[in-house]
Amino acid sequence: MTAVVAALCGLFGLLIGSFLNVVIWRVPRGESIVRPPSHCPGCDNPIAPRDNIPVVSWLLLRGRCRHCGTRISWRYPAVELATAGLFVAVAAKFGPHPELPAYLYLAAIAIALTLIDLDHFRLPDPITLPSYAVGLVLLLIPAIADSDWWPYERALIGMAALFAFYDVVAFVAPKGMGGGDVKLAGILGLYLGWLGWEELAVGAFMAFLVGGIVSIGLVLFAGAGRKTRVPFGPFMLIGAFIGIFAGHPIGHAYTSLLGN
Questions:
Q1: Are 32 and 26 in contact (CB under 8 A)?
Q2: 62 dihedral zone (left: phi>0; alpha: psi -120 to 50; beta)
Q3: What 3 state SS string does 26-83 have?
Q4: What is the DSSP letter of 232?
Q5: What is d(CA 26, CA 34) in angstroms, rounded to the nearest whole number?
Q6: Any bridge partners for residue 46, and if so which?
Q7: pLDDT in tens, 27-54
Q8: Which of 47, 115, 198, 202 could bridge 243 with an S-S bond, Cβ 3.0-4.6 Å?
Q9: pTM for the whole thing?
Q10: Is 148 helix (H, G, I), strand (E, B) or coil?
């Protein structure tokens, strides 16, 4: 059953990835994600349904507009494939459980927010703020289905705790942490807290560990300096998914090491 769910989620992820390409382009520019329909930036012709099939259309068109030949970035199919891959991983992790939709939603906004932050050094409110309400509602479903309220209460604690932690960090070091990071922290705390304290701790810690390693690499191999801007949102999201997929074994290994 889990394999079937994972396969279906992979196909669904391709479709969502196609939509995320619109979100990634339009939301930072303050444009509607509904209108106008997708069109070629070169000739302004609407993209026909046959040319809007995830990945396949890009391959058949050889990465160019059918009408004017304008090059279509490789990032479009890459986003679709990345979304599908992450959806499959999430489905394999949670299986056919009521909490699955909540984590698929998190995976979708993670793709969008990562690329927007890399492109614009922003985590737009139109994505982060509604995600609080969406996450609270979607996680309420498994709490009711399982008649177990403690994970939901723990999720609320995790949301408040991680938001407060990042808010303090942003106050102490405002040049290194933005308001968008603080807002994202609450969302990640919600999802990590639902899974457990180990997942919350590992997810929070890994953001800084991964960010530190990448920053050192940029200094050593890319000539980055103190004034080089590096968005922190992608590291937060990577850390969160490390916490989701491996937080429990990592946390258990750490506590066992301390016990010895």
A1: yes
A2: left
A3: HHHHCCCCCCCCCECCCCCCECCHHHCCCCHHHHHCCCECCCCCCECCCHHHHHHHHH
A4: S
A5: 10
A6: 39
A7: 999 999 888 888 777 777 788 888 788 9
A8: 202
A9: 0.94
A10: coil
Q: Whose CA is closest to 108, among 83, 71, 137?
A: 83
- How far apart CA 158 and CA 188 sit, in angstroms, is 8
C-beta separation of 17 from 105 below 8 A: no
Quick one: which of 28, 15, 22 has its CA closest to 41? 22
Two tokens at 117? 């932050």
Q: Give the separation between CA 238 and CA 259, rounded to whole angstroms.
A: 28
CA pair distance 32, 23, nearest whole angstrom: 9
Of the candidates 57, 89, 94, the one whose C-alpha atom is nearest the C-alpha of residue 76 is 57
| pLDDT above 90 (res 260) | no
Task: Write out pLDDT tens, residues 55-80.
Answer: 998 998 888 888 788 898 999 999 99
Q: pLDDT per residue over 244-254, tens digit each?
A: 999 989 987 87
Q: How far apart are the first and last CA of the chain?
A: 40
